[in-house]
Design brief:
The complex is a heterodimer of chains A (230) and B (193). Chain A is elongated, with a radius of gyration of 29 Å. Chain A is an all-alpha fold. Chain A has a domain of 71 residues. By secondary structure, chain B is mostly helical. Chain B has a domain of 120 residues. Helices cover 69% and strands 0% of the residues of chain B. Chain B is built from 13 helices and no strands. The radius of gyration of chain B is 16 Å and the shape is globular. Classes of the chains: A mainly alpha (230), B mainly alpha (193).
């Protein structure tokens, strides 16, 4: 009870301020109101409206969230969270987390993986903000989020893309993409331009850039000299 | 506002009485508002400015305020929103970190020079400031300003269950930070909440 006692002792006298001090502040406030311009008054009222707008956007976000419209919910939670309204940051993080999960399960295009990571990154940022504000469970949810969106793991929902003309069982005469990348750049480029198994391997790797997320599976050339190395 | 020491009791009736005129309302709530804001803002200089901002808003909207159930809750809500907006902007510009927000940083000493209440309860205020934002808000509104959980819920726009959670966590964190109580305080207050 130690903490409560101190807090209540402080609370018991919080309203006791010398009357003269309060009156001086009141006179100052009235003077300030009288002397301010119309523009300043309008600005003040606009700021007050903004406070009410935050409240309205938060309610709208909750409504969208309840109805399952996650994109709209994220949009309106974002407006409320920008002003640190209530638990908007935490709710926004959860919605973005759900959207990233949906993106992972239902990849629509080649850019889906990037969208998923973008959503996950934004979600992680808002989980951090929420944790900083006092939502302790945000830390656990951030851990789950990070574990669920590991760029090194292949996407479970992703369908294998098969190149037209690629024959099953066909093998690269040079021993595969990793070996090819150890050759001179001009040789490697010329080879990949004609070798279907290497092209298939490249597609499976989702190009060169996604491979960079996985340091262990980087072709030797890229690891040793960077993408421009010869 | 609320009878101090027994939050929530007659709060509505007292709030209505304070609406006799703006001056009465101002005299009733300004001290509580300013000092509550000192316990929340990492920049103490913001507290009187934001309190004045909220009071000007109350004066501008006085006719509307008369129709509110709890005009005092409204003014605390406006002040807190203003404070959090300013802090959110500061965080965006990267000059306010969570660590800085929780530190005394010496500026409380400056306020203590002019405000005897701050001087007397400086350790408590510093401990509240060191809490995370929502915890500090809930603890400050409930224990310092004397609002009930439902009132706090209305002011912050979060449900009562979450307010209780923040209150429990905030109080636990406060106990870790706060120094021991002055002698006799515990029995004086008879605290069983």
């Amino acid at each position: 009870m130690t903490g409560e006692a101190e807090l209540l002792a402080a609370g018991a006298t919080i309203g006791d301020m010398p009357g003269a001090d309060v009156d001086r502040r009141l006179r100052k406030l009235k003077e300030h109101r009288r002397s301010r311009s119309d523009l300043a008054e309008l600005g003040h009222l606009a700021e007050l409206d903004r406070v009410e707008l935050e409240c309205a956007t938060y309610r709208l976000a909750r409504k969208c969230h309840d109805e399952g419209d996650l994109i709209e919910a994220a949009r309106w939670y974002g407006v409320a969270a920008a002003g640190d309204y209530a638990d908007a940051s935490f709710e926004l993080a959860k919605v973005l987390d759900s959207l990233a999960g949906l993106q992972r399960e239902n990849p629509g295009s080649r850019g889906s993986r990037r969208e998923e990571f973008d959503l996950a990154e934004r979600s992680a940022r808002w989980y951090s903000v929420a944790y900083g504000a006092g939502h302790q469970e945000a830390a656990d949810m951030l851990d789950v989020l990070v574990a669920g969106h590991d760029p090194r793991e292949p996407c479970a929902g992703r369908q294998q893309v098969h190149l037209t003309g690629a024959r099953t069982g066909e093998v690269c005469p040079l021993g595969g993409l990793r070996r090819v990348m150890e050759c001179r750049l001009t040789t490697a480029t010329a080879h990949v331009g004609t070798c279907r198994p290497c092209q298939q391997e490249l597609v499976d790797h989702r190009g060169i850039l996604p491979v960079s997320g996985n340091r262990h599976s980087l072709p030797v050339r890229l690891r040793a000299r960077g993408p421009g190395g010869v | 506002m609320i009878k101090r020491g027994s939050p929530g009791q007659d709060s509505g009736r007292e709030a209505r009485l304070s609406l006799a005129s703006f001056d009465v309302f101002y005299r009733r709530y300004l001290p509580v508002l300013v000092r509550f804001l000192v316990s929340q803002a990492h920049e103490s200089a913001w507290a009187p400015e934001i309190a004045e901002y909220a009071m000007v808003a109350a004066c501008d909207k006085w006719d509307d305020l008369l129709t509110f159930d709890r005009p005092d809750c409204w003014i605390f809500m406006i002040a807190l929103r203003r404070l959090r907006q300013l802090e959110a902007r500061a965080r965006e510009r990267c000059w306010l970190t969570e660590a800085a927000a929780g530190s005394d940083g010496g500026d409380l000493r400056m306020v203590a020079l002019t405000d005897s209440w701050v001087r007397e309860h400086r350790a408590v205020i510093a401990a509240v400031r060191a809490l995370r934002r929502r915890h500090a808000e809930v603890v400050g509104l409930h224990y310092l300003a004397g609002y009930t959980v439902d009132d706090v819920s209305a002011i912050l726009g979060i449900n009562a269950a979450k307010v209780r959670t923040h209150l429990r966590r905030g109080l636990a964190a406060f106990r870790d930070r706060a120094p021991g109580p002055p002698a006799g305080i515990e029995t004086e207050c008879g605290l069983s909440r």
